[in-house]
TrEMBL record:
Name under which the protein is recorded: Nitroreductase family protein
Record Pfam families: Nitroreductase
Stretches for region Disordered: 182-201
GO molecular function: oxidoreductase activity
Nitroreductase domain mapped to chain residues: 3-32
Domain of life, per lineage: Bacteria
InterPro entries on file: Nitroreductase, Nitroreductase-like, Nitroreductase/BluB
Length: 319
C-alpha cells in the first residue's frame, strides 16, 4: 500500500467516529505525509456545547480512528496534539511514516471501526463479565484517562438522579430542543430517526435522550444498567482530545468483545450537574462523557459526509 492509499483509507475510518448529534465537526488537510485535523467551528453546537468541549471529544475519536487505520495498515502514525498555540482549532497533526507491522490488537480494533454504532435500544440483562470490564478500564488508561465504572447501587443511584435532573433541564429548554430537532434526520449528518431508541417506561432508572424528541413509544430497559464515566485529569482542549481518543478506544474494545454502548451525556453537559457529579461520585478529575454498556442486538450504522467534503489537499486553508 502507498502512503496515499493509506491516508485515503485512514480518512474513511476517521469519519466513522461518533460525534455529538452526529455533527461531524472535523476537517482534514492532507499534505503528505502529514494529515492535519481541524475543529470545524461552524459545527460546534452553540446550545448544548458552547465551549466546543464535546466537538473536541468527537474530533479526538476521529483522530483515534485515523491513527489506528494507519497502524493497522502497517504504517507508523505519530500524533502531535495542538501543535500551534496561535491556531487553537488545529487540533493535531499526524505524521505517517515508514512501515512497521501492526500488532494483533491494532488489527482487531481497526476491524471494529465499521461495526461500532451507538445502540440506544434496551440491552438484555446478561451481566458483563469482569474481564470485559477490565478491558474497557484498561483501554481508557492506555490513553491516559480513567473509566470509572459505577459498580455500587449508591454510585449508580447518584448518577441516575443527576441524569434525570439534567435531562429535565434540557427537555424544558425550547432552545435546546430546537437544536436537537435541527440535528435529527438531517441526511448525511444529524441523528436519523431510525437510530433513536424507545422512551424508557415510567419508573426506569436511566433517562435517555430522545431522537426524535417527540418519540412516545415506551419500553422497559435493563433492570441493572452498567454505566461508566470517562474522566480526564484536567479540562483543557488537550484533555478533551485525549478524552476522545480514550472514548473511541473504549467503544472499539467494547465492540470487539460483543458489547453495545450508548451515551448518557446530559449530566456532563449541564454545568451544575457536572459539578455535582464530580463531587458526589468523588471523581479525581473532570467527567467528560458517560456510557451505558451491555448486550443488545447490533445497531445499524448511521450516515456520514463523504471524505471529500471534509478534506482539503495541499496547503489550502480550510474555510
Ligand atoms: C461527545 C459525545 C456525546 C454524545 N452524547 C450522546 C447522548 O447524550 N445521547 C445519545 O443518544 N447519543 C450521544 N452521542 C452519540 C452520537 O449521537 C452518535 O455518535 C452519532 O449520532 C453518530 O452515530 P454512531 O455513534 O452510531 O456512529 C454522543 C456522541 C459523542 C461523541
Amino acid at each position: 500500500m502507498t502512503t496515499t492509499e493509506v491516508i485515503e483509507q485512514a480518512l474513511r475510518a476517521a469519519v466513522r467516529a461518533p460525534s455529538v448529534h452526529n455533527t461531524q465537526p472535523w476537517r482534514f488537510v492532507v499534505t503528505q505525509p502529514l494529515v492535519e485535523l481541524h475543529l470545524d467551528r461552524d459545527r460546534v453546537l452553540p446550545v448544548v456545547d458552547p465551549t466546543g468541549r464535546e466537538a473536541r471529544i468527537s474530533c479526538g475519536a476521529a483522530l483515534f480512528n485515523l491513527r489506528l487505520a494507519c497502524q493497522a495498515a502497517g504504517f507508523a502514525a505519530v500524533v502531535d496534539p495542538l501543535p500551534d498555540p496561535a491556531r487553537p482549532d488545529l487540533l493535531a497533526v499526524l505524521r505517517v511514516s515508514a512501515s512497521r507491522p501492526a500488532t494483533p490488537e491494532q488489527t482487531t480494533l481497526a476491524h471494529a471501526i465499521t461495526r461500532r454504532a451507538t445502540n440506544r435500544r434496551p440491552f438484555n440483562d446478561r451481566p458483563v463479565p469482569p474481564a470485559h470490564l477490565r478491558a474497557l478500564v484498561r483501554a481508557a488508561e492506555v490513553e491516559r484517562c480513567h473509566l470509572v465504572v459505577l459498580d455500587t447501587p449508591k454510585g449508580l443511584g447518584t448518577f441516575a438522579t443527576l441524569l434525570r435532573r439534567a435531562d429535565h433541564v434540557q427537555e424544558q429548554d425550547p432552545i435546546f430542543q430546537r437544536e436537537l430537532r435541527d440535528w435529527t434526520d438531517g441526511g448525511a449528518d444529524g441523528v436519523p430517526r431510525a437510530a433513536g431508541g424507545p422512551r424508557p417506561e415510567v419508573g426506569s432508572l436511566l433517562a435517555l435522550r430522545q431522537y426524535p424528541p417527540e418519540s412516545t413509544v415506551e419500553r422497559p430497559y435493563e433492570r441493572d444498567p452498567l454505566v461508566a464515566v470517562l474522566v480526564t485529569h484536567g479540562d483543557t482542549p488537550r484533555d478533551h482530545l485525549r478524552a476522545g481518543l480514550a472514548m473511541q478506544r473504549v467503544l472499539l474494545t467494547a465492540t470487539v468483545v460483543g458489547l453495545s454502548a450508548s451515551f448518557l451525556s446530559q449530566p456532563v453537559e449541564v454545568p451544575h450537574t457536572r459539578t455535582a457529579l464530580r463531587t458526589l461520585l468523588d471523581l479525581s478529575g473532570q467527567p467528560q462523557t458517560a456510557l451505558r454498556v451491555g448486550y443488545g442486538h447490533p445497531a445499524a450504522l448511521t450516515p456520514r459526509r463523504p471524505v471529500d467534503a471534509v478534506t482539503t489537499l495541499g496547503t489550502e486553508v480550510p474555510s
